[in-house]
Write a structure and sequence with these properties.
Elements (H helix, E strand, L loop, with lengths): L5 H4 L1 H9 L9 E3 L7 E2 L5 E10 L11 H17 L4 E11 L5 H18 L2 E9 L5 E10 L15 E5 L4 H16 L13 H8 L5 H9 L6 E5 L3 H12 L1 E6 L7 H9 L4 H7 L5 E6 L4 H7 L3 E9 L4 E4 L5 E3 L7
Helix pairs in contact: 3-4, 5-6, 5-9
Bound molecules: magnesium ion.
Length: 339
């Protein structure tokens, strides 16, 4: 198929082309794309805004990331921050920088993923920008959401006896990324191993097409449980739990044997001789929610939240931040990304 040069359309026609099928369905969207600014009306609710910048070569590699998945993941990265405030995302703005090697059809694919995520999470795409780039692709995503003032959960609300809770499992996306990197080296002829992706569908999906934990936020609203503090785990549990502790002015104890790790994550970690627990602590890209709740919520948490594990508890700031190993050793918790 003949690909369409972006220059043949020009910026304004490209934007018109990309947004032609965009429809707004949220009551809070008064005016979406097509004017100088979107107009939003949130009435009595508080408005929440969060932005993420994704750079080719730093945050994603297009050798193994399909553009449609990248579009979907960019939206998830943006709205995960809104859910982490116990709020509901309603609108997104998407800005894309594209170098000469991309065609109109490529940007269409990226938008396909963005639109799929919008349909999945009930979001309106209400604006953005498209501009030429000298250095590959750049994606800026801004998410806007709402919540009643009394429902908003900050990182700072944790109390020193609160339970520390985590949705889903950790380290899977990081292991998916390791697998994709390994297969890329095979493809480039830098390794004599055969490509092998079978049996690792789950970790690949966790890296390529993550989901934001809307389901947990909805369930917590339904059972009337409001966390005391919350953060989304995007940079790795170790780093993100320390943010929560610092802002809540608390210490923490995390029991390593309680860290939820999927079997595929363990299997991949074994294959490439990485410690799965280290990946769980420092991997990143998990998009799970880490939150605290009073001890009195223990039964409710156990009974009503199937996908949530209690991995530890907060304590007095003077007691510091420590991991407890299965044989009862304590190890100081440090944020140590892989890069
Ligand atoms: Mg965040």
């Amino acid at each position: 198929m003949q690909k369409t040069d972006i220059a043949s359309l020009g910026k304004f026609n490209l934007i018109a082309h990309l947004t032609a099928t965009v429809e707004c369905t949220q009551p809070s969207t008064v005016r979406g794309t097509g004017d100088d600014a979107a107009v939003l009306h949130y009435g009595q609710a508080e408005t929440l805004v969060s932005t993420e910048l994704l750079l080719e070569g730093i945050h994603f590699n297009l050798t193994y990331t399909p553009l449609k998945h990248l579009g979907y993941k960019a939206v998830v990265a943006g709205i995960s921050n809104i859910y982490a405030m116990n709020a509901t995302p309603r609108q997104i703005l998407l800005s894309v920088g594209v170098s000469k090697r991309f065609f109109v059809e490529d940007i269409d694919e990226l938008y396909d993923g963005v639109k799929t995520a919008c349909a999945q999470y009930g979001l309106d795409l209400v604006g953005g920008d498209t501009t030429p780039s000298m250095t590959g692709m750049t994606i800026g995503i801004t998410a806007i959401g709402e919540a009643p003032k009394e429902k908003i959960v900050y990182r700072s609300g944790g109390k020193k006896t609160d339970l520390l809770c985590l949705t889903g499992n950790l380290g899977a996306a990081y292991m998916g990324l390791q697998l994709l990197e390994r297969e890329t080296r095979v493809f480039d002829g830098q390794s004599d191993k055969q490509p092998q992706l079978q049996g690792f569908e789950y970790i690949l999906e966790r890296y390529l097409k993550p989901e934001a934990r809307k389901d947990i936020i909805d369930t917590m609203a339904a059972i009337n449980l409001t966390p005391t503090a919350m953060i989304d785990v995007s940079d790795g549990l170790a780093s993100d739990v320390l943010h929560l502790c610092r802002q809540s002015q608390c210490g923490v104890r995390i029991y390593l044997e309680r860290l939820p790790i999927a079997s595929e994550t363990f299997r991949m970690a074994d294959e490439i001789h990485i410690d799965a627990v280290t990946a769980a602590l420092n991997g990143g890209d998990d998009y799970e929610l880490l939150f605290t709740a009073p001890l009195s919520c223990y039964d409710t948490l156990r009974k009503e939240l199937q996908n949530v594990d209690i991995i530890g508890h907060l304590c007095d700031a003077s007691e510091g931040a420590f991991l407890i190993t299965p044989d009862n050793q304590t190890v100081e918790l440090r944020a140590q990304g892989w890069k």
